[in-house]
Amino acid sequence: MTDVRLTQMQLNELELLRAGAYGRAVRYELPDRSPHVATLLVGELAPGSTVTLLDTETTPVATVNIDDARTERRGTWLSGAITMLREPATPSFPELRPAAQGDPFGQATLLLGRSVGRVDTPVIVVDRGDAHALAKSVRSVRSDGLDVRVLPEPAASHLDGADRAELLTHLASVVFSSSVRVIRGEDDTRGDGLVVLFTGLSGSGKSTIARQLTRRLRAESSQRVTLLDGDEVRAMLSSGLGFSREDRELNVRRIGWVASQISAHGGIAICAPIAPYEVMREGVRAMAEQVGRFVLVHVATPLDVCEARDRKGLYAKARAGEIKEFTGISDPFEEPARADVVVGADGESVDDAVETVLAVLTGRVEANYVI
Question: What's this model's pTM, rounded to 2 decimal places?
Answer without folding.
Answer: 0.66
